[in-house]
Amino acid sequence: MSGSEPPVPETRVLAVASHVVSGYVGNKIAVFVLQALGCDAAALNTVQFSNHTGYKQWKGTRVSAQEITDLFEGLKQSYLDDFEMMLSGYIPGAEAVGAVGNIAKELKEKSKGTPGKFFWVLDPVMGDNGRLYVAEEVVPAYQSLIPYADLILPNQFEAEVLSDVKIVDMDTLTQAIQVLHEKYRVPHIVITSVNLLAPDHPPSHLSVVGSSMTSGGRARLFKIVFPAIDCYFSGTGDMFAALMVVRMRQAVAEVPGLGQRPSWLSDDDTPTLELPLARAAERVLASMNEVLSRTKEGMPKDLKPKTADQNSHLAATKAAELRLVRHLDCLRSPKVEFKARVV
Amino acid sequence: MSGSEPPVPETRVLAVASHVVSGYVGNKIAVFVLQALGCDAAALNTVQFSNHTGYKQWKGTRVSAQEITDLFEGLKQSYLDDFEMMLSGYIPGAEAVGAVGNIAKELKEKSKGTPGKFFWVLDPVMGDNGRLYVAEEVVPAYQSLIPYADLILPNQFEAEVLSDVKIVDMDTLTQAIQVLHEKYRVPHIVITSVNLLAPDHPPSHLSVVGSSMTSGGRARLFKIVFPAIDCYFSGTGDMFAALMVVRMRQAVAEVPGLGQRPSWLSDDDTPTLELPLARAAERVLASMNEVLSRTKEGMPKDLKPKTADQNSHLAATKAAELRLVRHLDCLRSPKVEFKARVV
């Protein structure tokens, strides 16, 4: 690290997500990523669990909506609410989603005289692979908040839920993103882990598809294809989101004046592949690929993750915990191999 | 960081301390230090407060003794209690101290057939500068646990409370450490922030005094003198403790076979200045001095920390939050300038 400067200017980020004692999901991974890349991360933990739920058993408690509100009141009364960015991840229940939304709205309102001063990255954690894993009332709670977000990071299923468009191919994916821009006026969108058959999608590859809208609300779409790693990891969405916070901030800082524009939205004549969102996503995926590869390499070869035996499941789940702390170079200086393409 | 290896082998550490949303004390600083130096840190948070108590106002909640016990049960049921080290810091109340003590005792018991397999670093957080800041019943709770600890890190006041020796000069300090070794059979002791007049103590300097006992329970004392930085920082004890975990592990790993001996205790004929504890403390203080210096340099010059005005107090307290995240090199590769001397 000696001699290598952090990639972003000093940035105060409020990270709201779950905390696990052991392992790497939610704030446990997001806060480390933010800090390792030089951000002053405030961590508001929405739960404290012994371990992530992929183990299928855990202990611990949720933080109530009132406690979330109180913690933010505590920050405000000591002038510690001077956040430049906010990242919200898993929040337990609709009431708590509302409480976190109120924090974001308040921070946004406070900075409204200074465009670009506050930027909210919202990961609308609701479900995956065709199934909700939160209570149904969480969906409208998120829907009412998305118009306040600057960047949302739904996975393919969450994008469907929010847009009411069933995604089956690139056309419907494009349509879903256009609907999200129009319906919620959300400026930046990245859909993570897109899994579609397409001519430019080799087998065993995934993609992310992103867009920063024009002043008229039109999508500007790009896509990054990358090799899937055959393993079930937890926490990848949280790592992706934290890296996006840093790399978006960095990419915007590289464009003079952009950081002072509302929602850091680029000129209409900016080529899609020069959008800061596209450049950020490239760097994020480079880090993701390196961390996941190192994690896979570090796993014992004799694990059988898909047996019905509970002890094998626990051992395999532990072995798949993301390995960041000994691979800081993957976060700091990843090699960009997967490039964005215009959709 | 590229190319620079972590200083310790992969080490799973259970860190038990407070969590603050904003700022750097307790687990908020300890966990980052452990992770930045390559440890797999599990973080069991004993409170979640908006900010540290040095602001004189905060919001948030304490975790009950029962919740602490439950979280550990959660780890055990998924075989996530395979810790090689444990670091315990601030724990709210005697009952919770007992709960944390039970965790340490259980981990110790589990590894008793394999000497050196588990090492507990206990920071008996009770008070400072002549005054307890915990309830009185916390004192006997700690006293009953110290015989299970491998290394304790009391400050000067806590060493007095635990040893019943009033420390007024190097003689009484030496006596207090000898009492701690004998009364509690605790193998390693470092007394942090010793402030005594002594011929080898220039004005505006502090020292730490440490000892690893012989097989017969005799103290082997060393002292490291370093310049005090004129500022009131919070979280320094927690940063010190986390750095000690890493540097002790590293120094022990540098001595063949030592990691397989009970409590990592060196041979009786090991020269005092070659004790791993002394070498670890040198590296720890090097990092501390660099982080505190960078923090001081980064503070606005016009702050008046000692006015009675509450807003000035809040601003000064925020400015004194430790600045680690942009100075990882201070943690990873500090320059050792302050050397241990035999007392």
UniProtKB/TrEMBL annotation, chains A, B:
Keywords: ATP-binding, Kinase, Nucleotide-binding, Transferase. CDD domains: pyridoxal_pyridoxamine_kinase. One of its GO terms (cellular component) is cytosol. Transmembrane segments: none annotated. It is an enzyme of class 2 (transferase). Signal peptide: none annotated. NCBIfam families: pyridox_kin. Belongs to the pyridoxine kinase family. This is pyridoxal kinase. It comes from Stachybotrys elegans.
